[in-house]
Amino acid sequence: MTGEAVGPPPAAFVFGDELRRRLAENLARHPRQPLHVDGHRRAAVAVIVVDSDADRHGDDPNPAPPERMAGIPGAGDFPLTGSIRGTAGGPAILLTRRAPTLRAHGGQWALPGGRIDVDEAPIDAARREVSEELGLELEADAALGCLDDYATRSGYVITPFVFWGGAEPVLHPDPSEVLSVHRIAFRELCRADSPRFVSIPESDRPVVQLPIGGDLIHAPTAAVMLQFRRVAIEGVTERVADYEQPVFAWR
Predict the structure, then answer these.
(1) How many independent structural domains does the chain possess?
(2) Strands 215-218 and 203-212: what pairing?
(3) Which residues partner with 48 through β-bridges?
(4) Under a CB-based contact definition with an 8 Å cutoff, are residues 27 and 235 in contact?
(5) Does any domain span residue 69?
(6) Cis peptide before 175 (omega within 30 of 0)
(7) What share of the chain is helix, strand, coil (3-state, %, to 5)?
(8) Is the pLDDT score of 52 beyond 70?
(9) What is the largest CA-CA distance in the chain?
(10) Could you tell me the CA-to-CA distances from 130 to 89, 168, 222, 227 in Å, in that order?
(11) CA distances (Å), 23 to each of 52, 60, 162, 225, 244, in order?
(12) Which of 113, 219, 224, 244 is close enough to 205 for a disulfide, judged by CB 3.0 to 4.6 Å?
């Protein structure tokens, strides 16, 4: 990580024009790192900044079942509940729990996004996927910036875009893709015990974990969320391309 944090701590942020300007300026200063990996397909995801209310947006009706939590590496010292209840309140980003019926990564945490179609611009793919998954139409001027590419073990290079979603976006999640949508507050992204790094025998790279409520978010989603925290919120540079995914996310 390089540089010094720019601006107030996340607890001091208030949703509005000043926050939008600060995030956009921090992202504009970031020297973005693209990736090209032979044989990997391209995908795009969206980090959508919204406002949130602790009471109205803080529930988690579908906590992870014990069998999913059993596969989380290095979690013996963490009080896992599988729930992210109570993580809303103030400026936040949207995070989805994927429908358990999906063939790939069902039930896992994810940012809205997906594969880039042939001849489709990456930012247009991110906006299209948000529309398809959440029923939210993002205009071109909602884009605040772009983070580093991240190569996944499952054969994709992901390009993350940051969007301003507005205080009260109207969402219509597609139940075939999305089990639930959550608002993760900036203060939760910036917890003192986050991030965590654990070792696995299958890789020399550290597995990155973000504590969110009583659950642990993993890469690729955690890598993007962590870089959003460092770059957009805190105004510093941290590369995340070498942060590993857990084995259950390799498929």
Answers:
(1) 1
(2) antiparallel
(3) 163
(4) no
(5) no
(6) no
(7) 25, 25, 50
(8) yes
(9) 47
(10) 22, 15, 19, 20
(11) 17, 27, 9, 14, 26
(12) 244
Contact between 169 and 178 under an 8 Å Cβ cutoff? The reply is no
**pLDDT at position 233 over 90:** yes
- Please give the backbone phi and psi of residue 183, each rounded to the nearest 5 degrees, phi first: -110, 115
Provide mean pLDDT across the span 183-205.
96
Q: Which residue has the tokens 């720019």?
A: 6
In a domain, 3, yes or no: no
Q: Where are the alpha helices (DSSP H) in the chain?
A: 17-29, 54-57, 66-69, 122-134, 186-189, 221-227
Residue 75 has pLDDT above 80, yes or no: yes
Report the pLDDT averaged over residues 92-110.
81
Instruction: Report yes or no on 204 lying in a domain.
Output: yes
For 182, list phi and psi in degrees, rounded to 5: -130, 150
What ranges in 121-236 are assigned the alpha helix state H? 122-134, 186-189, 221-227
> What is the chain's length?
251
User: 82-91, 96-105, 217-226: lowest mean pLDDT where?
Assistant: 96-105
Question: Which amino acid type is present at position 94?
Answer: L
Note down the domain range covering 116: 10-57+80-244
Give the CATH number, domain containing residue 240. Answer: 3.90.79.10
Question: Between vectors from CA 87 to CA 160 and to CA 56, what angle results, nearest 5°?
Answer: 105
Q: How many CB atoms lie within 10 A of CB 162?
A: 25
Evaluate whether residue 135 is within a structural domain: yes
Examine the pLDDT at 222 and tell me if it is beyond 60: yes
The whole-angstrom distance between residue 209's C-alpha and the CA centroid of its chain comes to 12
Can you tell me the distance from the alpha carbon of 128 to that of 20, in angstroms, rounded to the nearest whole number?
A: 22
Confidence (pLDDT) at 14:
93
